[in-house]
Amino acid sequence: MKIGIFGGTFDPLHNAHLFIAESARVLEKLDKVLFVPTDRTHYRTPATATAEDRCAMIAQAIASNVHFGLDRTDLREDATGYTADLLPKLRARYPADGFTLIIGADSLASNAWVRLDEILQQLETFAIAPRAGVNEAAFSNAIAAMPSALRGRVRTLNLPELPESATLIRRLLSEGKSIRYLLPEAVWRYIADHNLYGLKDEVA
Q1: How many CB atoms lie within 10 A of CB 75?
Q2: Dihedral angle computed from the Cα positions of residues 123, 63, 60 and 181, in that order, rounded to the nearest 10 degrees
Q3: Could you say which of 4, 62, 141, 204 would form a disulfide bridge with 68 (CB–CB 3.0 to 4.6 Å)?
Q4: Rounded distance between C-alpha atoms, residue 34 and residue 67, angstroms
Q5: If pLDDT is split at 50, 70 and 90, which confidence band does 49 have?
Q6: Gap between the Cα atoms of 89 and 105, Å rounded
Q7: Nearest to residue 73, comparing CAs of 87, 58, 52?
């Protein structure tokens, strides 16, 4: 079986996440895509919502897609938040399956990935989704810095650049603006019902 690994804080999960995951599944011929939320953030602001709330939103949003799953491995007490440490733990759970890591181009261009060669060695494919506003020079430099023997595992998904981000959604909420159709309806209702992210009554 071919499994896609899609990690992040998902704070909250939004429609662009789902579009990228489904597109990667189709383009890379994956049997399943696992959403792997984390609490250990090294390159971004810590999550605003609790792990319990974020997992609940993911579970509700992906319930209708039989090819999607939720994996809590990177929420365990021994999790480091580093992909190089996560993949062996997932390998122990899925010993016979091939892995495709799904990331956004912004993540590759903006962050110094730790032990990237170890990550690439554990993957069949390193699938990168285009994101709006990514520094092209930084992105190209990040690809060029990869070990040449492993660079063939890297693929850029043929997708439109998507401007939606969890940061944008949280900012709009803090400004009292509507974010309803940037999110799956189940996630929107969960945020409204649990008063997350400072949601104001007038936009609920």
Answers
A1: 16
A2: 90
A3: 62
A4: 9
A5: very high
A6: 25
A7: 87
Cα(113)–Cα(24) distance, integer angstroms:
21
What is the model's pLDDT at position 201?
63
**pLDDT of 121 strictly over 60:** yes
Confidence band of 204 (pLDDT split at 50, 70, 90): low
Paired tokens of 135: 């520094």
Superfamily of domain 2-164 in CATH is HUPs (3.40.50.620)
- What per-residue confidence (pLDDT) applies to 203? 61
Beta bridge partners of 109: none
- Mean pLDDT, residues 127-133 taken together: 89
